[in-house]
Design goal:
- The chain contains 22 helices and 19 strands.
- It is α/β, with parallel strands linked by helices.
- It has four domains: 2-136, no CATH class; 190-233; 245-403, Reverse transcriptase/Diguanylate cyclase domain (Alpha-Beta Plaits); 418-646, EAL domain (TIM Barrel, Alpha-Beta Barrel).
- The strands form three sheets. The chain has a ten-stranded mixed β-sheet. Strands 6-7-5-8-9 form a five-stranded mixed β-sheet, sandwiched between helices.
- Helix 8 (284-302) runs antiparallel to helix 9.
- It is elongated, with a radius of gyration of 56 Å.
- The two termini are 93 Å apart.
- GO terms for molecular function: cyclic-guanylate-specific phosphodiesterase activity.
- This is Diguanylate phosphodiesterase.
C-alpha cells in the first residue's frame, strides 16, 4: 500500500510538471502568433496613412480600406496636437485562460503609426479573439490529455495491485495450510510448496516460512515449558510444597499402572492423627506447622530410598511410593518413621503424631483397589498404638481384604478399651474474663492399648462413631469423670465433658445420663456438657430433648465449634444453651482480620441479649488474647492460656 501511494504521488507530480510545460509551450506559441499579427497590422496601417489626409480618415473609409472591424479591437486617430479625431472601439473580453496568459506575457500591446506630413497619428490594438479561443481550447485539451496520461495508469495499477495482493494472499494461505496440515518443521519447507499457486511464489516464501516454522517451534517449546510449570504449581500443595492428590494419581497411572515394564514396590500412607485436635485447641497456624513437621520427617526418611516419591493427598494424609522396595525393606521404613514420629511427639508434647499403613504393589494394579487395601492397613496401624505402622502382606490381602479386617480390629480394640476402662483424663482450663464470669475446666479423654500405648484420639473417636460405639465411649468418659471428681474432692470446680451428637440424639443415652446425674445430684450442677453446633443441627428435636434433660437435672450446656454451621439465633432461643464456644478458626489471625472481629462482636452482643456466655478457643498468642478481651468475650481457652494436663 505504501508503494501504491508513492506511485500516485509520482504520477501527480508528473502531471503537474507536464501541464506546466505544455502550458508554457502553448502560451509561447500564442505570444509569437500575436506578435506576428501585430507586426503585420502595423505595416498595413503605416502604408495606409502614407497617401491619406486627415479628411480621408473616416470610419467608413477605414473599414473599406483596412478591412472589417474584426481586425482591430481599438483604432484611435489623433493629430499632432494630441486631439482625438476618430475613436473606433470594438473590444470584448477574452476567454479566462487566454486572458490570464495574455496579461501575464503582455502579448497584446498598443501599436502606433505616424504620418508627420499629413498630421496623422494612429494608435490601435489588434483583435486576438480567434487566437484566444484557440489558446483556450489548446490549454483545456492539453490539461485533459495530460490528466488522462497521468491517472489512467494509476487506476490500472490499482486493479493490478489488488489482483496481485489477492494472489499473494491466496499463496500465503495455501502455504500456511500446508504447514498446518503437516504440523511439523521440515528441513526444507520449499519442497512442501507443491501446488501451482504456491509454486509461483514458493521460492520467495520458503525462507520466510522456514523462519516462521522455527519461531513457532521455539514458541511451542516455551508454551509447553510454561504449561508444565503451571501444572506443577496447580499440582503442588501450598503448605508443604509436595505434589497433591492429582499429581499422585497421574504419577501412579503413568509410571505404575500403565507401565510397559514389569515393576514392583511399596506404597505407604501416613495419616496425621492429631491435626483436628491441634486445629481446634491450638489454632490453624499450629496445625500448619504440625503438617510441615511431619512432611519434613517423611521426606527425610523416604529420601534415603532411590526414586521415592512423596505426595500430600488431603489435609491429613501423605502417600509415599517406594519403587523396587520389597516388604522386608518396607518394614524398616515403617520402623524408622515410627521412631522419628515418637521423637517429634515428645518434643511437641502430643499424645500421638501419625500412623502408617504399607502395602506392596505391582505394575498394572488399579489404583482404587490399592488405596482400599492401604486404607485397611492404616486402620490396623491406628488400632495398635500411637505412631504405629502396619504392613498388609500378600497373605493378608488374599484372606482379609473383603472381610473388613481393619474395622474388625478396631472394633476389638474399642471393645477392649471399654471393658478394661483404659481411659486417661486430661484437663484444660478456660480462663474467665471479668470477675462475674463463671468458667470451667474442659475434660479431655485419651485412650490406651492393652500394652499401655496411647491410641490416636481423633482416629479412635472417629472409628467409634463409624462402628456405632460412640455411646459406650461417652458413657465410659462420663463415668470416669464423675468418679475422678468424687475421688479428688473437686466439688467446688466446674467441669466440661464432650458428648458426641450421636449420643445426644440417642434416647438410650439420654435416659442413662439422666439416671446417672440424678444419682449424683450434688455433682450435676458442676457439670457442663459440650456438643458441637453442627451435631445439634442434625436433629433439632432430639437436641432440644437432650438439652432440656440436662437443664432439668441441674447441669448446663455448651455449644462448641460455634460459627462453622449456619445456625440462627432463633435456634438458640429455642434450645437455651448456657455457653457457646467460638470455633478456633475465628481466633486465627484475629488481630489482623477485621471481618472476624466484627463477626465475633456481633455474636457476643446477640448472645449476651439472650443470656448466653461466649468463650473463645484456640487462643495461641498475647495479641489474640488482647483482641478477645477488647471484644467483651467471657472467657478464653487455648495453649497460650494453659496446655492440657493430666488430672
Amino acid at each position: 500500500m505504501a508503494g501504491f501511494k508513492k506511485l500516485i504521488f509520482l504520477q501527480l507530480i508528473s502531471w503537474i510538471v507536464f501541464s506546466a510545460l505544455g502550458s508554457f509551450l502553448v502560451a509561447s506559441s500564442f505570444d509569437n502568433a500575436v506578435s506576428r499579427a501585430q507586426q503585420n497590422a502595423q505595416s498595413m496601417v503605416s502604408n495606409y496613412i502614407q497617401e491619406k489626409t486627415m479628411a480621408d480618415v473616416t470610419p467608413e473609409h477605414i473599414r473599406l480600406s483596412l478591412g472589417s472591424g474584426n481586425v482591430f479591437s481599438s483604432f484611435i486617430v489623433r493629430d499632432f496636437a494630441g486631439q482625438t479625431v476618430l475613436n473606433i472601439n470594438t473590444q470584448s473580453e477574452m476567454p479566462v485562460l487566454a486572458g490570464v496568459i495574455a496579461n501575464a506575457m503582455n502579448s497584446v500591446r498598443p501599436q502606433f503609426a505616424v504620418n508627420k506630413s499629413k498630421d496623422i497619428k494612429i494608435e490601435f490594438l489588434i483583435n486576438v479573439q480567434s487566437q484566444a479561443q484557440l489558446l483556450q481550447q489548446a490549454m483545456i485539451f492539453m490539461i485533459i490529455i495530460s490528466a488522462l496520461m497521468a491517472f489512467i495508469p494509476i487506476f490500472y495499477m490499482k486493479t493490478i495491485y489488488r489482483k496481485l495482493n489477492r494472489n499473494v494472499s491466496m499463496t500465503v494461505a495455501d502455504a500456511v495450510d500446508i504447514y498446518i496440515t503437516q504440523n511439523q518443521v521440515s528441513e526444507s519447507i520449499d519442497q512442501d510448496f507443491n501446488t501451482n499457486k504456491v509454486a509461483e511464489l514458493g521460492a520467495e516464501l520458503a525462507p520466510s516460512f522456514n523462519r516462521l516454522a522455527h519461531f513457532l517451534k521455539s514458541k511451542q517449546e516455551d508454551i509447553k515449558s510454561a504449561a508444565q510449570s503451571i501444572k506443577q504449581e496447580a499440582y503442588k500443595d501450598v503448605v508443604t510444597g509436595l505434589g497433591n492428590r492429582n499429581m499422585f494419581v497421574e504419577y501412579y497411572e503413568h509410571q505404575i499402572e500403565s507401565a510397559s515394564d514389569k515393576s514392583f514396590g511399596s506404597l505407604a500412607m501416613i495419616r496425621c492423627s492429631e491435626l483436628q485436635m491441634i486445629n481446634q485447641t491450638r489454632g490453624y497456624q499450629k496445625g500448619d506447622l504440625y503438617i510441615k513437621g511431619i512432611a519434613d520427617i517423611v521426606k527425610h526418611v523416604s529420601g534415603t530410598y532411590t526414586g521415592s516419591q512423596v505426595f500430600r493427598l488431603n489435609s491429613s494424609d501423605f502417600a509415599v511410593i517406594l519403587p523396587n522396595i520389597p516388604s522386608k525393606e518396607a518394614e524398616r521404613f515403617g520402623e524408622t518413621l515410627q521412631a522419628r514420629f515418637t521423637q517429634y511427639q515428645q518434643n511437641q508434647e502430643l499424645s500421638s503424631v501419625a500412623n502408617t499403613g504399607i502395602v506392596p504393589y505391582e505394575s498394572g494394579k488399579p489404583l482404587g483397589e490399592l488405596l482400599s487395601v492401604v486404607d485397611n492397613a492404616m486402620s490396623m496401624a491406628q488400632s495398635k498404638q500411637a505412631n504405629a505402622w502396619h504392613l498388609q502382606r500378600e497373605t493378608d490381602l488374599v484372606n482379609n481384604v473383603g472381610a473388613g479386617f481393619g474395622n474388625q480390629n478396631w472394633r476389638r480394640v474399642i471393645r477392649e478399651v471399654i471393658e478394661s476402662r483404659r481411659v486417661m483424663l486430661m484437663m484444660q482450663n478456660i480462663m474467665p474474663i471479668g470477675k462475674n464470669v463463671k468458667a470451667y475446666a474442659e475434660i479431655q479423654a485419651r485412650f490406651k492399648t492393652e500394652d499401655g500405648q496411647m491410641l490416636p484420639t481423633a482416629s479412635f473417636l472417629a472409628m467409634a462413631e463409624k462402628l456405632e460405639m460412640a455411646v459406650e465411649i461417652d458413657q465410659l468418659i462420663i463415668d470416669t469423670s464423675i468418679e475422678m471428681i468424687k475421688s479428688r474432692n473437686f466439688n467446688e470446680k466446674f467441669f466440661g465433658i464432650n458428648v458426641t451428637a450421636s449420643s445426644a440424639h440417642s434416647d438410650q443415652f439420654v435416659i442413662w445420663l439422666e439416671r446417672r446425674l440424678l444419682k449424683e445430684a450434688n455433682l450435676s450442677s458442676k457439670l457442663i456438657f459440650e456438643v458441637s453446633e453442627f451435631g445439634l443441627q442434625q436433629n433439632i428435636k432430639a437436641s432440644k430433648r437432650f438439652i432440656d434433660m440436662v437443664h432439668r437435672v441441674g447441669a448446663r450446656i455448651t455449644v462448641e465449634r460455634f460459627g462453622v454451621g449456619l445456625t440462627s439465633f432463633k435456634f438458640f432461643r429455642d434450645l437455651k444453651p448456657d455457653f457457646i464456644k467460638m470455633d478456633a478458626s475465628y481466633t486465627r489471625g484475629l488481630e489482623e482480620d477485621k471481618n472476624n472481629q466484627y463477626f465475633m462482636r456481633l455474636m457476643v452482643d446477640l448472645a449476651h441479649r439472650i443470656g448466653v456466655s461466649v468463650f473463645a478457643e484456640g487462643v495461641e498468642s498475647q495479641e489474640e488474647k488482647h483482641i478477645v478481651e477488647t471484644l467483651c468475650l467471657d472467657g478464653v481457652q487455648g495453649y497460650y492460656i494453659e496446655k492440657p494436663k493430666e488430672i
